[in-house]
Amino acid sequence: MSERSGKVQTVLGLIEPDQLGRTMTHEHLTMTFECSHVPPAPGDEGLAAAPIEIKHLHWLQQNPYSHQENLLLNQEIEAVKEELLCYRKAGGGSIVENTTTGINRNLPVLRQLAKDTGVHVVAGAGYYVDVTHSDETRKMTVEKLTDIIVSEVLHGADGTEIRCGVIGEIGTGWPITESEKKVLRATAHAQTQLGCPVIIHPGRDTAAPGEVIRILQEAGGDITKTVMSHLDRTIFDHQELLEFAKMGSYLEYDLFGTDLLNYPFNLRVDMPSDSVRVQNLAFLIKEGYEDRILIAHDIHTKHRLTKYGGHGYSHILKNIVPKMLSRGITQNQVDKILIENPKHWLTFK
Ligand SMILES: CC(=O)NCCS(=O)(=O)O
């Protein structure tokens, strides 16, 4: 049995699972998202180059990836610190920080934020999507990738002694590339060695989550300790959702606070509103999945911070929880989604 067994690993060390409290299982506190820049529509070049201002907020909400500066969340450490203090005041306890290799993980900043705010921060090991894989990463064998991921959890990552407490978000696109498949197999092998939680970013296609789970399963991964992120923008039909839910992973709705009409990464998608997200949670609960649901905001751009008029990290606690309660979800079920489910997922076997 390892020292991590029965514990949660934060950037400040191991803690008891009961110390976590309310937990957002998919956020970013510092990262860059230049890999996902979308050129502005003809005529919008001026807006895309303008400083972020309240008069441009609606444009930014509809075109978040077409503004280069908006993609640099790493420039907002002070604002994020203030947000985390508000998150604590609102009853938040912990945050899983999903930034992996490829989108500028910064473990010393995460550790400082945890120290300054008292919020428990769990950092992510592994690799984001193919477009961010270096030539060196692409050439690695599954064994080498496994060793690196294991070391990020056991010894620390990016040349620091700060240890990751989950693997992910592991990035995959659609179709899943060969390099991403190797990372997925390495993730499963590392999880087998460590007994740790895993979290996946699926490609933007309805078939993507199921395909990822099949690859992890074949490589020996523990699907019951694996989270499928971004279901909001990936599976829409309730029957397809139930088919996927039967595969046994955690089901994460993590884009609370976003209301995007034309989702630039897949224009066929009708991005749901927060009201529809809550309806989906109520549906999954009715179907018996209350032990498998997780929620978050996945803040990864500047405009979603309260400093810029956004909803911030406390939106779920302040606005979504009352909405859930008003739609027949009980306090006990809310507590499962925000406290019990994250706790079970994050505890090492
Ligand atoms: C940081 C990240 O991967 N966020 C997800 C954005 S997406 O549009 O839902 O893929």
UniProtKB/TrEMBL annotation:
<keyword id="KW-0378">Hydrolase</keyword>
<dbReference type="GO" id="GO:0008270">
    <property type="term" value="F:zinc ion binding"/>
</dbReference>
<dbReference type="InterPro" id="IPR001559">
    <property type="entry name" value="Phosphotriesterase"/>
</dbReference>
<protein>
    <recommendedName>
        <fullName>N-acetyltaurine hydrolase</fullName>
    </recommendedName>
</protein>
<keyword id="KW-0479">Metal-binding</keyword>
<feature type="binding site">
    <location>
        <position position="26"/>
    </location>
    <ligand>
        <name>a divalent metal cation 1</name>
    </ligand>
</feature>
<dbReference type="InterPro" id="IPR032466">
    <property type="entry name" value="Metal_Hydrolase"/>
</dbReference>
<dbReference type="Pfam" id="PF02126">
    <property type="entry name" value="PTE"/>
</dbReference>
<feature type="binding site">
    <location>
        <position position="201"/>
    </location>
    <ligand>
        <name>a divalent metal cation 2</name>
    </ligand>
</feature>
<dbReference type="GO" id="GO:0016787">
    <property type="term" value="F:hydrolase activity"/>
</dbReference>
<comment type="similarity">
    <text>Belongs to the metallo-dependent hydrolases superfamily. Phosphotriesterase family.</text>
</comment>
<feature type="binding site">
    <location>
        <position position="28"/>
    </location>
    <ligand>
        <name>a divalent metal cation 1</name>
    </ligand>
</feature>
<feature type="binding site">
    <location>
        <position position="230"/>
    </location>
    <ligand>
        <name>a divalent metal cation 2</name>
    </ligand>
</feature>
<feature type="binding site">
    <location>
        <position position="298"/>
    </location>
    <ligand>
        <name>a divalent metal cation 1</name>
    </ligand>
</feature>
<feature type="binding site">
    <location>
        <position position="169"/>
    </location>
    <ligand>
        <name>a divalent metal cation 2</name>
    </ligand>
</feature>
<feature type="binding site">
    <location>
        <position position="169"/>
    </location>
    <ligand>
        <name>a divalent metal cation 1</name>
    </ligand>
</feature>
